[in-house]
Design brief:
The structure holds two protein chains of two kinds. Chain A is α/β, with parallel strands linked by helices. Chain A is built from twelve helices and nine strands. Chain A has a single domain, classed as TIM Barrel, CATH 3.20.20. Chain B is α/β, with parallel strands linked by helices. Chain B folds into two domains: about 160 residues, 3-Layer(aba) Sandwich (Rossmann fold), CATH 3.40.50.1100; about 220 residues, Rossmann fold (3-Layer(aba) Sandwich), CATH 3.40.50.1100. In chain B, helix 2 runs antiparallel to helix 4. At the A-B interface, helix 3, helix 5 and strand 6 of A face helix 8 and strand 11 of B.
């Protein structure tokens, strides 16, 4: 069984963390992953940096630009992750834009992920129908779960379709926004969380975008299986460095 | 072989809608409605009336006698430079503002490089009384200050794009992010035949008025509808798409697409996407794209701010790959000389983008009997300081 599916069966609210590979320093990747696991994180999204991250706000844009400046590439990331499964057992997902994966070769990229022990991919700009028609077979051959996004504007019909082709969880984008910055979820967002919860989908939902504190984490996990934190973690890394990881997770999971 | 778009939104292998889910509702709504809206007689009536009375169409198809004598062939100039706001860009923004109104949108966003599309968008927003926000690279804002002033005078808010390389591609990223953040009330007026389907097709259809007019104007002047060649410069490719549109499937009309070689195709400072690009995804479209081996998008260079886009519209990627169009790359120097030459021979100062298309006559010989139509996409007023610095005028 894929590690993502196994993790989703655990009887707890899941904390998932996104970070940009190669930030703050090129060689930080493995140690960040190990420290996150040690400090109670349930799942990790490893961001493959891209020059033009059009669904991301300023924080992740800046971390991506820094990572590329530090020299991060797909090959270097795979090299850094080569032995990661000797020390880390939680689910690992690579999140990146489609173009770098297309250049690497989708099949070669998936094969490399399988070798390393990556469990899934999130590719925001790979549309559902293109995945379904062209790449589903390749992902499945290499044991990879492709995670799809829904937003407050996604129609009920489309949510059911996305649910029908999802094999792990659904990534629920909390609000109409790029990544980063919300201090607290308002009524409209809470209503949306409740609406999706009431749809009783086959796949559990994990909420991302705008989760930054213990309060927003609790608001999200009241109605979903888990929550993903990205920008807030990257800001913290920038300020406190890797040594700050225990403090960060402690504040979320109090 | 078909050269126009297929029912799935692709030109050959290029096109599609590679967008994050956050954009799906807006793009899908547009995809479902755009052809129906455009086919509505009321829409066409309003569109054509504005093109005539506000833009000043039809634009002349002018036989350039002295230029023709110099190159010993028959050269016609399609005078898009005489449109209101000085370029072909307004054909598309008129169409899209009418589209936005029918989609019930009240807030307009746009990206701009040199500022021509930004000005054309600000103009139609003023005309219709709609809120207008234009994203423009911080570096371009400094380079094209007069256009920034024009947009502001027209009531638009100009927001500097300070991410990445601070030029056109980053302005486009910022506009897309704005659309993600404002999914309900906002329409994004993309300025070229780029972006997710249906944008390339919709923009091409609004620009198709150019080749529609060429056909009847040539019939009047030459007694035949079809030229032997159509030449246009290509950045994203909207003026070329318009000039080619009604000739796409008629291979007796040869198409020439002119890209900016910058300081030379292999100089490392170029915007010749067909020569330097590989298949990739930019701004929601699969197309030819200048990028590193690792799939990071690289920054193009051209002396003309309207041609330095790292991608090219999917229609043009297909015209290149299928060899339907001949692609020629013109350097900064050759373009500048061609711009000066047209000024002196015909009394027309072209935009530097357009000057690239005119430089083809030095590169390629045409027969004396050939009828060659050049899309004179824009006027050179905005480029006076560049011309002046270059030629030490």
């Amino acid at each position: 069984m894929n590690r993502i599916n196994k993790k989703l069966q655990e009887d707890k609210n899941l904390l998932s963390i996104y970070f940009t590979a190669g930030f703050p320093n090129l060689e930080d990747t493995a140690i960040i992953i190990q420290d996150l696991e040690k400090n109670g994180v349930d799942m990790i999204e490893i961001g493959l940096p891209f020059s033009d991250p059009l669904a991301d706000g300023p924080t992740i844009q800046a971390s991506s630009a820094q990572a590329l400046k530090n020299g991060m590439t797909s090959d270097i990331l795979f090299e850094q992750l080569k032995n990661i499964r000797e020390t880390v057992s939680i689910p690992l997902i690579i999140m990146g834009y489609f173009n770098p994966i297309l250049q690497y070769g989708v099949e070669a990229f998936c094969a490399k992920c399988q070798d390393i022990g990556i469990d899934g991919l999130i590719i925001p700009d790979l549309p559902v129908d293109v995945y379904n028609d062209e790449y589903k077979a390749v992902f499945e051959k290499h044991g990879l779960i492709n995670v799809f996004l829904i937003t407050p504007q996604t129609s009920e019909e489309r949510i059911h379709f996305i649910d029908s082709i999802s094999k792990g969880f659904i990534y629920m984008v909390s609000s109409a926004s790029v990544t980063g910055g919300q201090s607290v979820f308002g009524t409209a967002q809470m209503d949306y969380f409740k609406r999706i919860e009431a749809m009783n989908l086959k796949n559990p939902q994990i909420i991302g975008f705008g989760i930054s504190t213990n309060e927003t984490f609790n608001q999200a996990t009241k109605h979903a299986k888990g929550a993903i934190i990205g920008s807030a973690f990257i800001k913290h890394l920038k300020r406190e460095g890797i040594q700050g990881i225990p403090n960060f997770t402690k504040n979320i999971l109090v | 072989m078909i050269y126009n778009i297929n029912e799935k939104g692709y030109y050959g292998q290029f096109g599609g809608a590679y967008i994050p889910e956050m954009l799906y509702p807006n793009v899908e709504d547009l995809r479902q409605k755009y052809l129906k809206v455009m086919a509505d007689p009321e829409f066409q009536k309003e569109f054509k009336a504005l093109l005539k009375d506000y833009v000043g169409r039809p634009s002349p198809l002018y036989f350039a006698k002295r230029l023709s004598e110099k190159y010993n062939t028959k050269i016609y100039l399609k005078r898009e430079d005489l449109n209101h706001t000085g370029a072909h860009k307004i054909n598309n923004t008129i169409g899209q503002i009418l589209m936005a109104q029918r989609l019930g949108k009240t807030r307009i966003i746009a990206e701009t490089g040199a500022g021509q599309h930004g000005v054309a968008t600000a103009t139609v927003c003023a005309l219709m009384g709609l809120e207008c926000i234009v994203y423009m690279g911080e570096i371009d804002m400094a380079r094209q200050a007069p256009n920034v002033a024009r947009m502001k005078m027209l009531g638009a808010k100009v927001i500097p794009a300070i991410s990445g390389s601070k030029t056109l591609k980053d302005a486009t990223n910022e506009a897309i992010r704005d659309w993600i953040n404002n999914p309900v009330d906002t329409h994004y007026i993309i300025g070229s035949v780029v972006g997710p389907h249906p944008y390339p097709d919709m923009v091409a259809r609004f620009q198709a008025i150019v080749s529609e007019e060429i056909k009847w104007q040539l019939q009047e002047q030459e007694g035949k509808e079809n030229p032997d060649y159509v030449i246009a410069c290509v950045g994203g490719g909207s003026n070329a798409a318009g000039a080619y549109y009604h000739f796409l499937e008629d291979t007796s009309v040869k198409l020439i697409a002119v890209e900016a070689a910058g300081k030379g195709v292999n100089s490392g400072e170029s915007a010749a996407t067909s020569a330097l690009g590989k298949v990739g995804v930019i701004h929601g479209s699969k197309t030819l794209l200048m990028q590193t081996e690792d799939g990071q998008i690289t920054e193009p260079y051209s002396i003309s701010a309207g041609l330095d886009y790292p991608g090219v519209g999917p229609m043009h990627a297909h015209l290149y790959q299928s060899e339907r169009a001949e692609f020629i790359a013109i350097t900064d120097d050759d373009a500048m000389e061609a711009g000066l030459e047209l000024s002196k021979l015909e009394g027309i100062i072209p935009a530097i983008e357009t000057a690239h298309a005119l430089a083809v006559f030095k590169e390629k010989a045409f027969k004396p009997t050939d009828i060659v139509v050049v899309s004179l996409s824009g006027r050179g007023d905005k480029d006076l300081s560049t011309y002046s610095d270059y030629f030490k005028l």
